[in-house]
């Protein structure tokens, strides 16, 4: 069957249409929301340059290829391409795309920036004619005629956070709408045609300039074309192992259903498995062995490309799934047991011809040919090592102090000496920034983090970065997110000391201290957290570093626990228990016994968890730590409640309550009241449960503890619902919602919407019931909470079934 030119490709693509520089962060958030619903973003960020295709053709074809269209309108009008026949109205590219989506009757979501949204002066349209066109476009987009078959969601946003929340919910609704379209399509429509699979690509950006290696690329293509194949590239630092793997992966990613890049250097199996699970959109439950088996089972059934980069031990071998997935390994080592039956692809040094090719592309053919003999001598001195040749070319191109002739007269001792010389030739600001970059995560880091380490503002750091990058001392991974990476030899040549490493750890400790409100940023910076955590633990006798380690450990533990990456959280706990024991820090030891036990709960290992809590209890009694003792009692009570031993659980809650009252610890006391109320609710003693929740509410209001307050409101609403005081329950859910939105507590907000939807069902309000359940579903999907996701989906299915019956 031939697909009509205007029919969308059937891979559930969603066109993202807007001006770019002023809405870059909003586009990033939207694209993430689209991917979170297992849809594909059709956006300029993902659209590689095509020869002989102009901007109008390219943009309109993206609309035609997509199954749906999302338009963001800010305060800029954008580019107006000149074309009398295709753009007679002289409108912007965004408006042309919008018009095409209307013509094709694509489902449309519309987001318009509100008047109160903070904007930079440069992001406001100042051209009078364009301002008039922008105003007309805004009005026309909002005034779409009634009764249209085009699905439309329209929202105004005044902050990035508000936009993100709106986008998540709207895209979730769009996904369900597209699902319904697929179900309703008959065999004569494009909906019944075979799906086109678009791979999930999780690859770093490749080098803009890649020289030679065509023989090696072809060898990898042959080796990895068979399902289940394994190939590996070995060689010393600087030969281009990672660059070759990236070039191969980008060239042939279309041969696979998905492509996954896993940095392995200094990573544990739990960390690598957690990264792969995140890329696959999976949230395997259970311990590390169970998680690895599930990942292997999933990958073995799919035609994936798995790249394990910079492997430095045998642990990563457990991620090799066999089956349909092909695996590419890069490593400096030659004695890894799991590779002993495989022949390595040895990377040769650059040939003289490849050195000249790189020099001519970077410096210019005329200049290189004029100094051919001097260049040849320089290549020999640098050992034809690719990174040395690349840096030498960049120095000649960018720094007037360097010429081919001059470098040949003062030949460096070797490639590493040249790197040191290139670092020394940087301005003081660039050297300072490079030192900070060198202590960041080897696999890549945010420029903003490196700048924070040395106290640079954005403008100064960008100036310094330009100098570093232009000399090939830093690789660009993602320009829009400003993520970069240093080669291992550059990191070494930077001469970084422990001072910036300590500052790096301090910056990460500060960031992860606010993990709950900034968990997305923390998730992205997890590689830097690992580097900082490892450094702090490697400073024996340094009390300041140990304090940082404890703070980092807690933030990393809570983050990975929240994200459902429990094997990683458990691993942090194990490490801290060992370190606390060795250092004789009994306070930290008892705290980590308790933390470790919490991870064992969802794995069903309650007996082991209880044993750890008993150890925690013993240390607290030994130290006279009444506060820690009460916490242990509370956690033991939760386990006893899970075992159905409610009387024993309540007795422990009463013990902790007495301690909190004695210590005047109101913050923990209100938690105890809340837990006791839950037991009383199970017993049907609702009046007593409500009385304790009111006590909890009063303390929270006194202390300003809004997070616990919203939980109390939610639990009170459930009791009021049981009493059929539905309007009062609704008011409490509204209060709960307002607090969760204010705090950015998406987990609490998801539960709020779920219970709100069920309350609306009891009230007979089907519209609100569906709306709230869909909002909860979108949030549980974003947070990757499988149990809750399954349960709320069942509630929504019941809603849909009832709607069809009626």
Describe the structure.
With 806 residues, the chain is α/β, with parallel strands linked by helices. It is 60% helix and 8% strand. Helix 8 packs across helix 9, helix 13 (386-398) runs parallel beside helix 15 (415-424) and helix 20 (498-512) packs across helix 22 (526-537). The longest helix is centred in the first third of the chain and has 25 residues, at 160-184. It is globular, with a radius of gyration of 30 Å.
User: Count of DSSP helices?
Assistant: 35
Shape field: globular
User: If you average the pLDDT, what whole number results?
Assistant: 86
The beta-strand count equals: 14
Distance between the termini: 39 Å
Helix percentage range: 55-70%
How big is the Rg? Answer: 30 Å
**Content of β-strand:** 5-15%
Structural class: alpha/beta
**What characterizes the major β-sheet?**
6 strands, parallel
Task: Name the strands of the widest sheet in spatial order.
Answer: 6-8-9-10-7-11
**Which spans of ≥5 residues are poorly predicted at pLDDT below 50?**
1-5, 47-53, 146-152, 185-199
Task: Give the arrangement of secondary structure elements.
Layout: E1 13-17, H1 24-36, E2 40-42, H2 55-65, E3 68-73, H3 93-104, E4 108-113, H4 128-142, E5 152-157, H5 160-184, E6 200-202, H6 214-224, E7 230-234, H7 241-252, E8 258-263, H8 269-280, H9 288-300, E9 304-309, E10 326-331, E11 345-346, H10 352-363, H11 365-370, H12 372-381, H13 386-398, H14 404-409, H15 415-424, H16 428-438, E12 445-446, H17 447-453, H18 458-470, E13 475-478, E14 483-485, H19 488-493, H20 498-512, H21 519-524, H22 526-537, H23 543-562, H24 566-583, H25 586-600, H26 606-623, H27 626-642, H28 646-663, H29 666-682, H30 686-703, H31 706-722, H32 726-743, H33 746-763, H34 766-783, H35 786-805
Parallel strand pairs: 1-2, 1-3, 3-4, 4-5, 6-8, 7-10, 7-11, 8-9, 9-10
Antiparallel strand pairs: 12-14, 13-14
């Amino acid at each position: 069957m031939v697909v009509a030119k205007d029919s969308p490709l059937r891979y559930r693509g969603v066109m993202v249409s807007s001006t770019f520089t002023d809405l870059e962060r909003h586009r990033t958030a939207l694209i993430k929301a689209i991917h979170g619903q297992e849809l594909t973003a059709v956006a300029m960020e993902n659209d590689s340059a095509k020869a002989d295709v102009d901007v109008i053709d390219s943009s309109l074809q993206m609309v035609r290829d997509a199954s749906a269209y999302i338009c963001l309108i800010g305060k800029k009008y954008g580019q107006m391409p000149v074309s009398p026949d295709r753009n007679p109205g002289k409108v912007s590219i965004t408006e042309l795309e919008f018009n095409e989506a209307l013509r094709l009757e694509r489902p449309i979501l519309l987001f318009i920036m509100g008047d109160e949204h903070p904007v930079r002066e440069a992001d406001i349209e100042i051209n009078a004619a364009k301002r008039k066109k922008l105003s007309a476009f805004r009005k026309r987009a909002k005034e779409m005629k009634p009764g249209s078959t085009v699905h439309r969601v329209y929202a105004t946003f005044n902050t990035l956070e508000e936009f993100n929340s709106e986008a998540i919910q709207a895209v979730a609704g769009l996904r369900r709408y597209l699902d319904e379209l697929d179900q309703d399509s008959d065999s004569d429509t494009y909906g019944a045609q075979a799906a086109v699979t678009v791979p999930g690509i999780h690859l770093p950006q490749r080098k803009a300039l890649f020289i030679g290696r065509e023989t090696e690329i072809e060898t990898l293509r042959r080796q990895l074309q068979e399902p289940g194949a394994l190939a590996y590239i070995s060689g010393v630092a600087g030969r281009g192992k990672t660059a070759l793997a990236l070039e191969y992966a980008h060239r042939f990613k279309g041969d696979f259903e998905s492509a996954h890049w896993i940095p392995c250097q200094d990573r544990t199996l739990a960390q690598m498995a957690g990264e792969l699970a995140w890329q696959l959109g999976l949230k395997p439950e259970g311990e590390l062995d169970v998680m690895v088996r599930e990942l292997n089972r999933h990958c073995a059934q799919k035609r994936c490309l798995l790249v394990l980069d910079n492997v430095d031990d045998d642990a990563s071998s457990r991620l090799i799934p066999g089956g349909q997935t092909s695996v590419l390994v890069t490593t400096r080592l030659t004695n890894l047991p799991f590779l002993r039956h495989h022949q390595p692809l040895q990377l040769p040094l650059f040939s003289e011809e490849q050195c000249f090719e790189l020099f001519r592309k970077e410096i210019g053919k005329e200049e290189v040919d004029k100094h051919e003999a001097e260049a040849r001598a320089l290549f020999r001195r640098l050992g034809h090592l690719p990174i040395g040749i690349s840096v030498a070319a960049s120095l000649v191109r960018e720094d007037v102090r360097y010429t081919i002739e001059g470098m040949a007269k003062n030949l460096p001792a070797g490639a590493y000496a040249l790197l040191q010389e290139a670092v020394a030739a940087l301005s003081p600001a660039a050297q300072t920034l490079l030192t900070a970059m060198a202590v960041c995560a080897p696999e890549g880091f945010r420029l903003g983090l490196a700048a924070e380490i040395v106290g640079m503002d954005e403008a100064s750091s960008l100036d310094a970065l330009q100098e570093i990058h232009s000399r090939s001392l830093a690789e660009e991974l993602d320009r829009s997110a400003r993520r970069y990476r240093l080669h291992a030899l550059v990191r070494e040549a930077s001469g970084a000391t422990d001072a910036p490493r300590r500052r790096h750890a301090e910056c990460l400790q500060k960031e992860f201290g606010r993990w709950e409100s900034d968990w997305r940023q923390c998730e992205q910076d997890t590689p830097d957290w690992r580097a900082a955590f490892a450094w702090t633990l490697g400073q024996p006798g340094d009390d300041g570093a140990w304090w940082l380690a404890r703070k980092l450990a807690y933030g990393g533990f809570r983050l990975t626990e929240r994200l459902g990456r429990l094997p990683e959280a458990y691993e942090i706990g194990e490490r801290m228990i060992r370190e606390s024991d060795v250092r004789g820090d009994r306070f930290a030891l008892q705290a980590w016994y308790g933390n470790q036990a919490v991870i064992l709960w969802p794995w069903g290992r309650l007996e082991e968890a209880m044993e750890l809590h008993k150890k925690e209890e013993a240390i607290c009694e030994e130290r006279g730590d009444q506060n820690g003792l009460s916490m242990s009692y509370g956690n033991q009570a939760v386990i006893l409640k899970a075992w159905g031993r409610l009387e024993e659980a309540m007795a422990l809650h009463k013990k902790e309550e007495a301690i909190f009252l004695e210590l005047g610890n109101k913050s923990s006391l209100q938690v105890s009241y809340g837990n006791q109320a839950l037991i009383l609710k199970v017993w049907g003693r609702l009046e007593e449960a409500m009385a304790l929740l009111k006590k909890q509410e009063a303390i929270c209001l006194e202390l300003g503890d809004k997070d616990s307050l919203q939980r109390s409101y939610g639990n009170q609403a459930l009791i009021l619902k049981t009493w059929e005081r539905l309007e009062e329950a609704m008011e409490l859910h509204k209060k709960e919602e307002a607090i969760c939105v204010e705090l950015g507590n998406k987990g609490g907000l998801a539960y709020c919407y779920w219970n709100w939807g069920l309350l609306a069902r009891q009230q007979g309000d089907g519209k609100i019931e569906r709306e709230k359940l869909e909002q909860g579903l979108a949030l549980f999907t974003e947070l990757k909470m499988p149990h809750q996701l399954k349960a709320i989906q069942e509630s929504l299915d019941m809603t849909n079934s009832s709607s069809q019956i009626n």
